[in-house]
Amino acid sequence: MSNDSHFLLSDLNEPQRQAVVCVEGPLLVLAGPGSGKTRVITHRIAWMLEHGIKPYNIVALTFTNKAADEMKKRLEILAPDKPIRIGTFHKFCAYLLRLYSPMVGLESNFTIYDADESQKLLNLILEKISLPTGITPERIASGISWAKNELISPDEYISNTKSLLGSFVEKVYPEYQKRLKQGNAVDFDDLLFHVAILLRENPEIRQQLDRRFRYILVDEYQDTNLTQYAIARSLSIDYPNLAVTGDPDQSIYGWRGANIQNILNFEKDFENVKTIRLEQNYRSTKRILAAADKLIAHNEYRKEKHLFTDNDLGRPVRLLCCFDQREEAETIAEEIATEIKEGKRRPKDYAIFFRINALSRNLEHALHRSNVPFQLVRGLEFFNRKEIKDVLAYLQLIYNSRDTVSFMRIVNEPRRGIGKTTIGKIVDLSQLYGISTMDAAREFIKAEKIAGVSQKVKKALAEFVKMIDRLSEEAGRDEYTIESLVAELLNETKYDEQYATENEEDQQRLANIEEFLTEAREFDKRSLEEGTGEQQNALEKFLEQTALVSDVDSWETESDRVSLMTLHAAKGLEFPVVYLIALEQNILPHERSLREQTQLEEERRLLFVGITRAKEELRLSRTRQRTFRGRTETTIYSPFLFELPREEMILCDSPEQLADCPDDQPFDGSKVQRLVAEKKNLQADEFSEYFDGDVEYDDIHVEYDEDGNAVSTDSRSKKKKTNFLYSLTTAAELLKQKNEK
Predict the structure, then answer these.
(1) Is residue 613 annotated as a catalytic residue, yes or no?
(2) 3-class secondary structure, 429
């Protein structure tokens, strides 16, 4: 059978075929949006299996659980009964860390702390430290996170003496890591950090894993940071069969450490790299794709691609101008409601994207008033509810009795009369003797007399410890299920009885607990269907799954509802109709980006990602004034609007004009320019003045979260002038610098 007629290749275009059959050696697949990237990855794995490569020699790494699940589903069809290790970087590293936990001072049943739990542990340390104005626990946490993402250990961290924040990070970082290990816990950054250091400092382990995972595929490679780069690179030395797919034009996670240079310099990192471009788009109409292509051409840090599609020309991209955010939301809601009522579309055909979560409130109200069903895609919301975090804390302490944060959270939840003073004494005792809080509690119970602690409190504490020990024994039995364990702990603790009232909020909490039981039941069912496979403790697997959830994991693909989400959460999704709101300067692009080219380019990439989610219609909007963060201000057009093909777009100056906007009405570019000029805004061609000359920065490296909140961290660099920010240093160069030190 010839390659062309092989069933794995027959429905692929030529570049896709080339990528699938390229098995040996380093491979770079530059995949434009909607170009069939997931199909190429899954067909390539199936091709490898078909040609004799063992399943255990292959690992595929993604950035979301949803993407991993989709790949598994497709592979089960293409290559049934051949389980491949597919998962996120964090999940893969959790697996490796449990294998080699003693090498980093942990036990295999370590707890994975989420951001809230990590912050609680840090706050416990900072209780006895006086922080000056401007130095917050959150900024210190961000500084520690930055250090880990730069592969800087507590022993290596040396603050620049001029950085006040850095001096506090230098002081707190070692104690924070000590407390994590004492509690047999890791934070998100540790999952990657420990594995990267393990591979760097243990050549035999690196060689062993390199030999086992001979074929590594990394999806969304443009979103990798230094630690992820170091892990992928370390496992591709003896067997350099690293295949990466991605698109520099979709690199939108610089705020959390992603380094676009990893993909831009892939061909320099390896010898004999085969580069394949997937440029044919199967998703969007010609007009939508033209808008995206013209926009992204303004970026400098990218790999040149020429996107094209055989799809229809499609409707023109529309830009609507409203008076304020309420009119914007109501217009969108009414338009969607009308089209659904007329039978033109279903609710699930629509998605509304926004730059930050704070912009969703008016949309939620408007859709509710218009009786339009919707889902707000925030995957962490459910697991961040108090009652859910309480139940999870019980499960974490049952699994890992050394977990300090979980112990402190639920030792008096529901109330047992064990107050903060008693808990504080237990924590102090654990620190004094270097033991876990559970062991400290046991010593506490044995003590004949402790000042300020009654026998009643000691009895309550003894009953709590006995209950956790009993439930831990229950979880160790082979036949237990997660649902039965949760039901048992609810019965033992009487936790849900505190919410058995007529109060509406309490009723909602009870409903959430029932939903958690449903989550446990579904987990048990999936585990049974998937079979035993690799032996992993069920509770360990369940806790790992809940700890590593992301926003997009909560998106219900089959639910007939309008989807509301941030542009970051929209990555990898597609919808027939996409609304992009608040295309205004200081929102998109965010105000922090206007004076740094790299950040402005990332904002442009963010808009590019949003545009390319649309299959059939793209509807943009802005307002003349917007109330945002408590202030009402006149808005200014986003400068990105000047970079779109204005002559092919529709401009509606008000919602009243929507009915009178024919498809062939051109975008009135001159009118936009006049409006901008009246507001004394820079003309589109004047924005380049921001970037003339060198960029100057000092010892504080400023990073931002997804919502655009600034967080300053200590970069330990001297003040200098350069045309490139520190973030543009390649991962390969950073690793080389560290090795030289």
Answers:
(1) yes
(2) helix
